[in-house]
# Entry
Amino acid sequence: MLELNKDNFTNIVKESSGYVLVDYFGATCEPCKALIPQLEILEANFKNSVNFVKFNIALDRRLAIKEKVLGVPTITLYKDGIKLSELTKEFAIPENIAKMLEDNIK
# Structure
């Protein structure tokens, strides 16, 4: 999973065509760390239709706030640069992420 920074976020997420799932995380967030293996499995399952990336919100809090990410973990699905769906904190669990993908990927 590619780790984004403030320099490539716009190009990879906001200006891309197709689906992009962004894992907004914090380096010390234990629930964020626990999600990594499940996200890697989902990435393998959806590799032909969704680009999976991650963004450490500590690297650019302004960008996170601009994207309305106020807590972690936050999993956001974009299509053609537009936010389609989002799961935050206790709702950002593998089952909900898989359902979000299945409901939105067409």
